[in-house]
């Protein structure tokens, strides 16, 4: 089987690739479809086999024959469950791969639709093979294993600033909107079901409470579906956070309504007291969930404070604490989703200040990976479960449900926006309202909740499930596919891709303080005032507890700046040193251009020598700078069994002293720019050699300003050999040093001497090691507690 | 009481047209003005200095200075005054009004320019039309002024990097000997266009009476 797959591997690119991709896809589906029923059939087969074997053995009499030693035997049962799970995960991942190989398809049809179709095909195949479809969308499995990674990913990377700014709007949509939807749909459905007295169908059995329960299940906007679809349309931040935030926060409402109606369906009546208790329950569920999440978040932050010696397991704390928050909340029937969101959002600023850069990357990639696989699996399972389930199709019920869902959503959004716009400063336009209404997708959560219903209490359970699946299919397929062209048609504002620049950061901070000040002058305690108070409280007390070492006092602007520098330093090494460091854009502006000019020193002699091109000059400066940096580290720990200290981890003070020295050096370099425009000296001239022996800054001064130069002792045991001539070696070494620093988090080995190993390392290898080949490299960066 | 009421109403009406506030908002701001000035006609820098909540603000001096800056009065004058009346107070406050649903796109552009101009004036202290490196450094230093020694060292580096960014974005190809004088207003607009000033730089002006709340009292 593997050989067949092998022969279809993309050996040639070009115009045959889409066809190959399609072929590969179909093949894989067939493959998986055929193995799974084999798997399901596996256990009865082996048991038959052993039974047959036994009977054969017994039949020959009491003499125990010595059977031949089984060289190779098949024991599928032993590994059945993990094998099947792995197969499903593999299927999901291969599907994802396949879709992106087919270029046009992923542009037209959102991934979620394709995955559901794949699920349908697989389910169909299994059924064709005559086997029983495994109950894949088992609610236990779904809620405990498939849902948490997606929610954690969403919560950890939740953009806090837009979320908090729009929190009122989001809450109103989530709470009141969902309530309105539930009652409207439930009530009208009941009314419709009662309509036809002449033609009594089993619809008439439907009581009000089951209808309301059904309404509450089907009314909740689903975060998984919203994420899947909205991610592809790149809509502007405001709309994204409104719809997405609503889908997250309505979980509390859904949980309460669901349990409420389920309880009362047994009893059959509702009293006023029950309603009051329901409201109180809602508050408990919501606030309790948030509280549980926050507690675990603080615990995680506190734990991360002490992980400086065991960097390897840092990501584990993040994941485990979050998962426990979810489980604890579920234990009390509180809102697990809100607990996860709260946990992720609370722990993030502190954890990120404490953990190493590599752990940060690990967390990011693990979360993305798990959530991606989970999402894919959920959609495939939706397809499979559709094929499997016993369906009870009732035209009236299903069509009325779909229509009512749409109508309720539109009315709800329009009505609520009218009210909300009275209080909002940035009003929601009609276009915004349309997108919000249209983006209300239902998904797997609704299905799982429906699946949980007990048959004894709800005789029409199958009908419910059919209707729920129809609504899900309708919203995901129709709305999911058409939302992208609609967004283009309506010219809705898209997400701005630009990265946060240092200027924007400075001015954001400046604006915050300015607006707080103006509010104080005006005399009322507004939004900014409280935010400022919270930030100050956070800085004074909370950060001290939860962040290790010097970084607790680091102002946010400086943290942002350091992060930016770090990123650019990595980019610099990756690109091989050709790009100028502080600016990402290709430009020839350098520090020299902005520093106020000093009167040029009279030295006509240099002009006779050829000028060094700007890029070269920058390279030289960089080498000198980086050598200076490296020497200080090397000198600090030349013992080959200790690790070279990683400046980023070591503490702010050192970094800043180094910065200070660099800046002073920069100034010296600029002063001496005469020298640097001069050296047409070939690389191995004594001048350059001296320049590279960077432990001695006096090497590149023509004048003696030695008093003010930070004196760095030359360690004669320094491994840097003055014989090294190649410019490339410098880059290799610079990169290697970076490599060593970077590696520290995961491995413990003595630093290899640059002299001997210099040749072995390739800049290419470094690029591969250090680069982040992820799909979206730009994530939300460090922000204050309440940005 | 009645006569002065109608007279001030009349004045306030004139102000609504000029600044765009509603009558209610102007009345409230007038009450606040009276509180700050101790019932006099003008307020001075010391009056604003005395507000206790401002003490924690790192850019307090710049904010107070902005009120007394003649450039923010939109009358093409320069320099600063020592005392301002209620009308000037309102003019400065009007920079912080939010856009409404009815604001057209051109009006939004004009608003954004006005707000950016306000910020520019705050940075450009010597009024030469550009923000030089020194002035920008000062801005960043003030921002980090509450953060102790760490802040001061890093401030210069941050200001330098920021200036470099402005230069590279606006004038990408400079010869090695060229000198970037400073950030002009156009460059300033360019680098901050991602922030959408008209939606961010505003505060909520209440239509309710703020002086009766505890927070409304200043030391006087």
From TrEMBL, chain B:
Biased composition (Basic and acidic residues): 7-17
GO biological process annotation, one example: cell differentiation
Sequence similarity: Belongs to the calcineurin regulatory subunit family. CHP subfamily.
PROSITE patterns in the record: EF_HAND_1, EF_HAND_2
GO molecular function, one term: calcium ion binding
InterPro entries associated with the record: CHP3 (IPR052490), EF-hand-dom_pair (IPR011992), EF_Hand_1_Ca_BS (IPR018247), EF_hand_dom (IPR002048)
Region named Disordered: 1-21
Major site of localization recorded for this protein: other
Keyword entries, A-Z: Calcium, Cell membrane, Cell projection, Cytoplasm, Differentiation, Lipoprotein, Membrane, Metal-binding, Myristate, Nucleus, Protein kinase inhibitor
Subcellular location(s) of the protein: Cell projection, Lamellipodium; Cell projection, Ruffle membrane; Cytoplasm; Membrane
Origin: domain of life: Eukaryota
Membrane topology: Lipid-anchor
Name of the protein: Calcineurin B homologous protein 3
Keyword Transferase assigned: no
PANTHER family tied to this protein: CALCINEURIN B HOMOLOGOUS PROTEIN 3 (PTHR46823)
């Amino acid at each position: 089987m593997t050989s067949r797959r092998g022969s279809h591997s993309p050996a040639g690119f070009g115009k045959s690739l889409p066809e190959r991709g399609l072929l590969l896809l179909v093949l894989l589906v067939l493959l998986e479809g055929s193995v799974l029923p084999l798997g399901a059939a596996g256990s009865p087969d082996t048991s038959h086999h052993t039974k047959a074997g036994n009977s054969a053995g017994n039949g020959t009499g009491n003499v125990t024959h010595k059977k031949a030693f089984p060289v190779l035997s098949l024991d599928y049962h032993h590994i059945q469950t993990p094998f099947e799970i792995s197969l499903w995960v593999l299927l999901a991942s291969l599907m994802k791969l396949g879709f992106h190989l087919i270029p046009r398809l992923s542009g037209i049809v959102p991934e979620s639709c394709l995955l559901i179709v794949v699920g349908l095909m697989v389910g169909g195949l299994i059924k064709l093979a005559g086997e029983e479809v495994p109950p894949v969308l088992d609610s236990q499995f779904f809620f405990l294993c498939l849902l948490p990674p997606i929610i954690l990913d969403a919560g950890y990377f939740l953009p806090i600033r837009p979320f908090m700014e729009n929190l009122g709007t989001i809450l109103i949509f989530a709470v009141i909107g969902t309530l309105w939807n539930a009652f409207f749909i439930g009530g009208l459905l009941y009314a419709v079901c009662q309509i036809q007295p002449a033609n009594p169908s089993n619809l008439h059995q439907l009581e009000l409470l089951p209808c309301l329960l059904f309404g509450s299940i089907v009314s909740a906007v689903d975060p998984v579906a919203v994420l899947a679809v909205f991610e592809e349309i790149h809509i502007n931040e405001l709309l994204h956070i409104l719809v997405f935030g609503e889908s997250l926060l309505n979980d509390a409402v859904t949980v309460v309504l669901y349990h409420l109606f389920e309880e009362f369906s047994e009893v059959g009546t509702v009293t006023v007291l029950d309603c009051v208790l329901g409201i109180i329950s809602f508050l408990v569920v919501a606030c309790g969930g948030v509280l549980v999440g926050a507690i675990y978040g603080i615990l995680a932050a506190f734990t991360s404070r002490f992980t400086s010696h065991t960097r390897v397991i840092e990501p584990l704390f993040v994941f485990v604490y979050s998962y426990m928050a979810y489980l604890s909340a579920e234990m009390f029937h509180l809102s697990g989703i809100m607990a996860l969101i709260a946990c992720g959002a609370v722990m993030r600023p502190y954890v990120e200040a404490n953990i190493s850069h590599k752990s940060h990357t690990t967390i990011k990639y693990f979360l993305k990976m798990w959530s991606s696989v989970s999402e894919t699996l959920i959609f495939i399972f939706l397809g499979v479960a559709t094929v499997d389930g016993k369906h009870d199709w009732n035209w009236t019920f299903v069509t009325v449900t779909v229509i009512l869902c749409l109508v309720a959503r539109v009315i709800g959004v329009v009505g609520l926006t009218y009210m909300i716009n009275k209080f909002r400063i940035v009003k929601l336009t009609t276009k915004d309202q349309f997108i919000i209404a249209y983006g209300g997708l239902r998904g797997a959560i609704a299905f799982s909740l429906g699946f949980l219903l007990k048959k004894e209490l709800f005789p029409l359970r199958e009908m419910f499930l059919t209707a729920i699946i129809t609504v899900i299919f309708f919203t995901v397929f129709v709305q999911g596919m058409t939302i992208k062209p609609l967004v283009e048609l309506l010219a809705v504002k898209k997400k701005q891709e630009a990265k946060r620049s240092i200027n924007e950061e400075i001015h954001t901070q400046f604006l915050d303080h300015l607006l707080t000040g103006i509010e104080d002058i005006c005399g009322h305690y507004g939004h900014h005032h409280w935010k400022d108070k919270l930030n100050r409280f956070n800085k004074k007390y909370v950060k001290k507890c939860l962040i290790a070492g010097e970084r607790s006092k680091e102002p946010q602007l400086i943290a942002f700046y350091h992060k930016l520098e770090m990123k650019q330093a990595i980019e610099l090494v990756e690109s091989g040193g050709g790009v100028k460091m502080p600016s990402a854009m290709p430009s020839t502006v350098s520090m020299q251009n902005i520093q106020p000019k000093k009167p040029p020193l009279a030295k006509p002699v240099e002009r006779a020598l050829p000028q060094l091109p700007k890029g070269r000059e920058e390279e030289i400066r960089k080498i000198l700078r980086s050598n200076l940096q490296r020497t200080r580290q090397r000198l600090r720990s030349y013992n080959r069994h200790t690790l070279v200290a990683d400046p980023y981890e070591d503490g702010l003070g050192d970094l800043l002293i180094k910065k200070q020295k660099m800046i002073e050096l920069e100034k010296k370099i600029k002063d001496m720019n005469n020298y640097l425009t001069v050296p047409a000296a070939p690389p191995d001239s004594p001048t350059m050699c001296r320049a590279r022996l960077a432990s001695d800054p006096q090497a590149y001064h023509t004048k003696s300003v030695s008093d003010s130069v930070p004196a760095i002792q030359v360690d004669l045991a320094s491994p840097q050999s003055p014989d090294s001539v190649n410019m490339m070696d410098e880059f290799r070494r610079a990169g290697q040093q970076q490599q060593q620093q970077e590696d520290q988090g995961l491995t413990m080995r003595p630093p290899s001497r640059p002299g001997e190993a210099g040749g072995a390392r390739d800049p290419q290898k470094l690029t591969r090691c250090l680069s982040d080949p992820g799909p979206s490299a730009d994530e939300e960066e460090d922000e204050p507690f309440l940005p | 009481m009645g006569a002065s009421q109608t007279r001030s109403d009349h004045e306030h009406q004139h102000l609504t047209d000029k600044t765009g506030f509603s009558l209610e908002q102007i009345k409230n701001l007038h009450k606040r003005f009276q509180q700050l000035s101790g019932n006099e006609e003008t307020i001075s820098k010391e009056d604003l200095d005395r507000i206790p909540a401002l003490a924690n603000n790192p850019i307090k001096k710049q904010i107070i200075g902005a009120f007394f800056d003649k450039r923010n009065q939109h009358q093409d004058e320069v320099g600063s005054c020592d005392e301002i009346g209620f009308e000037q107070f309102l003019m400065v406050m009007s920079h912080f009004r939010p856009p409404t649903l009815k604001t057209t796109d051109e009006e939004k552009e004009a608003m954004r320019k006005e707000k950016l101009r306000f910020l520019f004036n705050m940075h450009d202290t010597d009024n030469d039309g550009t923000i030089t490196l020194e002035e920008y450094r000062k801005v960043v230093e003030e921002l980090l002024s509450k953060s102790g020694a760490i802040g001061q060292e890093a401030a210069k580096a941050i200001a330098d990097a920021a200036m470099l960014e402005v230069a590279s974005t606006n004038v990408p190809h400079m010869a090695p000997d060229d000198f970037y004088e400073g950030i002009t207003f156009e460059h300033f607009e360019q680098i901050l266009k991602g922030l959408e000033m008209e939606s961010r730089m505003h505060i909520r002006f209440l239509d309710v009476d703020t002086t009766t709340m505890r927070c409304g009292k200043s030391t006087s």
